[in-house]
């Protein structure tokens, strides 16, 4: 990666130093390049929305595993498959990020992750009832490709503009991503029909349709996004694998110099644990606990995606005016209220019905709470990504965003397994409260972070 102005080449051992002069201010990338970068959010949202959240997440326990009426085994298998994929990300993402920085190969790594996701998602066509092992393997591989791709794409963010503009850029991309999720899921849902066993012939096309959408929508990314930086020569007798691990050890050993980033990673761990549950179980909760009708499921999908897109853009603008960290904290507080609303959906329906003198269905309240949560769904993730971008020296964005990916995926493992085990023992309705604890812990740890101090630390280590 490079910045506007001159940058000293990093030594091979990449030892961080605080004696470097403050770097020149970055100029904003071209509109076309920012659009190309944002289109990857548009493209990969098809995977996380169709496969992880709305459609395949219901097909897996209901049809492939088929352990009605509780679906507890199917829900547990779903949690385990996602957790294994995130475990693989934890083991590989920082090392891949170190190699990516050394070889100046972010774009190639991003393309590889995209192709892995597309191929494994298309292969879900063969995941039919009873073929639980195959479905889990394909889910693990496809979600791994998606998850490392998130880290690879995020590593481009520091190069797209000055730090004070990154909140708006990130929010724009995240908002576009939710529109991508809306468009892709609408295409799939209206094409394949209801998620019922007697519609299996149509439902088998969910994976291939999502894969084609992802691939085509990502084409502008690889056409317009620029690869910055100069590949470094491999020292004599050194291998890329050994060098990648050496760089990773150096980064981890010197993380103490980035105090605010470390505290933020700690809080982000708990926030992501909560988000992973919401993303993976929101529609399962609606199906199994709220017992909603197909109309409400469709409305929830539309409302949450529209509110998430609008929230990401609006909160992105707020980040640049009010500060990334303050915005992030606000979204966590709103999440806490939303979790209480989700758990108390039936009670709230009775209270509202009594107050207005009419009947209110639990699914109607769930729609309202989902819309509120949707406002923060993209905003929390976008703000978190931006905080890491402004705390990370551009010369180490691949490595530090690799650690960002590790933090997020470890959190997803903890969140999904926590909910999976709790719902096996207590039922999904009570187990969902663990989300509230995660968001509260994230808010508490965020109070230890000083945004100005974190940005100053990044400037001191720029180019190291």
TrEMBL record:
Name assigned to this protein: MFS transporter
GO cellular component terms, A-Z: endomembrane system
Membrane disposition: Multi-pass membrane protein
Record keyword NAD present: no
InterPro entries per UniProt: Atg22-like (IPR024671), ATG22/LtaA_families (IPR050495), MFS_dom (IPR020846), MFS_trans_sf (IPR036259)
Protein origin, superkingdom: Bacteria
Keyword set, alphabetical order: Membrane, Transmembrane, Transmembrane helix, Transport
Record's keyword annotation contains Transmembrane helix: yes
Pfam families: ATG22
Transmembrane spans: 42-64, 76-97, 109-128, 134-157, 169-193, 205-225, 261-286, 298-318, 330-353, 365-388, 400-422, 428-447
Cellular localization per UniProt: Endomembrane system
GO molecular function annotation: transmembrane transporter activity
Main location: membrane
Annotated ranges, domain Major facilitator superfamily (MFS) profile: 260-464
């Amino acid at each position: 990666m490079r910045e506007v102005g001159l940058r000293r080449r990093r030594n091979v051992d990449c030892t961080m130093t605080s004696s470097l002069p403050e770097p020149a201010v970055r100029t904003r990338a071209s509109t076309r390049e920012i659009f190309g970068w944002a289109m990857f959010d548009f493209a990969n949202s098809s995977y996380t929305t169709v496969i992880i959240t709305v459609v395949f997440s219901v097909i897996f326990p209901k049809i492939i595993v088929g352990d009605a009426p509780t679906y507890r085994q199917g829900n547990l298998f779903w949690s385990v498959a996602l957790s294994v994929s995130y475990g693989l990300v934890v083991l590989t993402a920082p090392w891949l990020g170190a190699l990516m920085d050394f070889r100046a190969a972010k774009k190639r790594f991003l393309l590889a992750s995209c192709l892995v996701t597309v191929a494994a998602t298309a292969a879900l066509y063969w995941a039919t009832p009873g073929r639980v092992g195959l479905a889990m393997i394909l889910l693990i591989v496809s979600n791994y490709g998606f998850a490392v791709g998130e880290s690879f794409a995020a590593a481009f963010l520091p190069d797209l503009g000055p730090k004070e503009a990154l909140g708006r850029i990130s929010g724009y991309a995240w908002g576009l991503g939710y529109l991508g999720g809306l468009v892709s899921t609408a295409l799939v849902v209206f094409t394949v029909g209801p998620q019922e066993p007697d519609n299996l012939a149509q439902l088998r096309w969910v994976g291939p349709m999502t894969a084609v959408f992802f691939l085509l929508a990502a084409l502008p990314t690889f056409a317009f996004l620029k690869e910055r930086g100069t590949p470094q020569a491999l020292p004599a007798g050194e291998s890329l694998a050994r060098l990648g691990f050496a760089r990773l050890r150096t980064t981890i050993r010197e993380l103490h110099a980035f105090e605010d980033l470390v505290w933020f990673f700690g809080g982000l761990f708990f926030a992501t644990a909560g988000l992973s549950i919401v993303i993976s179980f929101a529609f399962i909760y609606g199906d199994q606990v709220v017992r909603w009708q197909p109309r409400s499921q469709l409305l929830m999908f539309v409302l949450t995606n529209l509110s998430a897109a609008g929230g990401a853009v609006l909160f992105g603008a707020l980040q640049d005016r009010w500060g990334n960290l303050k915005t992030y904290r606000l979204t966590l507080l709103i999440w806490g209220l939303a979790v209480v609303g989700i758990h108390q959906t039936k009670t709230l329906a009775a209270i509202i019905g009594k107050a207005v003198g009419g009947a209110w269905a639990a699914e109607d309240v769930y729609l309202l709470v989902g819309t509120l949560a949707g406002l923060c769904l993209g905003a929390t993730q976008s703000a978190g990504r931006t905080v890491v971008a402004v705390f990370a020296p551009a010369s180490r964005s691949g490595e530090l965003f690799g650690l960002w990916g590790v933090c997020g995926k470890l959190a997803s493992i903890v969140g999904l397994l926590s909910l999976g085990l709790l719902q096996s023992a207590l039922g999904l309705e009570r187990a969902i409260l663990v989300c509230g604890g995660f968001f509260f812990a994230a808010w508490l740890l965020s109070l230890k972070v000083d945004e100005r101090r974190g940005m100053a630390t990044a400037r001191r280590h720029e180019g190291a």
